[in-house]
Amino acid sequence: MDNRNLRREFKHTLAEIDDKIDDPRSRISRSVAQWLRTRLDTLMDIFTAMEMERNEYANTEKTISTIEEIIKSENNKIETLLEKTEQKLNLSAPLAEPQETTYTQAVKKGTHVIMKYPHRTKIILPTRDVKASMTVQSINNVKDAVETKRAFEEEMSKFEDKINIKQMRLLRNKGLAIEAATPQEAIKIKEIFQNSHTCKINIPNPKLPKVVIFNVPKDKLEEDVIQDIYDRNFSKVIDAEDYKESIKVLYRIGSKSEHYVLETKPQLWHEFMNRRKIYLFYKSTGVEEYCTPTRCRKCLRYGHTYSICREELQFCGYCAQTGHDVNHCPNKEQMPKCINCIRKRLKDNEIAHDANDKNCFAFHQAKLIEKSLTDYGEISNTV
Question: Is the pTM of this model over 0.85?
Fold first, then answer.
């Protein structure tokens, strides 16, 4: 490569990085920071190649002086860019966690919760009332969910009392997902269809809340851990039999340290949240709410698992393309793109992260929906 082409490539790469840093609409995430560092390494390789070319033309004094001026000029640009990049990265990484609205605040504010995200100021997301939600299935054989909806509306029109329905969604299993305006109206709908010959109403049981207990000794049995938690923390608050019925070990997480994920009834969950720390085997350990929405590892959508996924192609969690997964992605040198945020038609600067990013808008929306489907019981002011 001659000196002219080398200089042209150098300037193109330099301008490309400058655009990424100076763009006021975007905020540099960790993935973008990694991409910037890769591009800076490329610049340094080009700079080294320029020095090698200077040695090749060592016999011509004019060429040497010209190349030295070019190298000195470009070297100053590299140093300025490095300082600028490091300063930008220090200001932006690590990213601040989004300020989540607590469950108590959500109940006080009503059915809409305001959440803050890194790329957006305020986003209002509707939450579901789990006690007012239900599914409708047709008793007769129907072609699709549209016929089920028609039969449901005909049955409802026979009654004089008008019942308000907040939202209705068609399901793939030829049924309907309905959310009534209030839990009382949901009970009325169930009473209307109790003896119906067209549709069947099913009010799903709400999910129980979960907690995670950190740094549990690996050499202890699950039964001993559960019993020790009760003896040291809740023996004066909850009856032993009620405690055993109110707690269940779901699974363990963590590689270096072992953390227990427990499913509890609302009353016991509030006891955990009021403490935030519990005593366990002669030490104090932290406890937090555990809320991780289910995600398919094939299509990367939230709300279902791989075993029931209807997608035919594998989606990549890094580049959002099909045909490969994140472990075999050939586009690691490019900027990442989140497939879930692309599906929600967000802006370009809002999709510049991989699907596993904890600041992902789609992740926090799925997390909020997961919380809205959980029965937390009566809300305590101390939570």
Answer: no
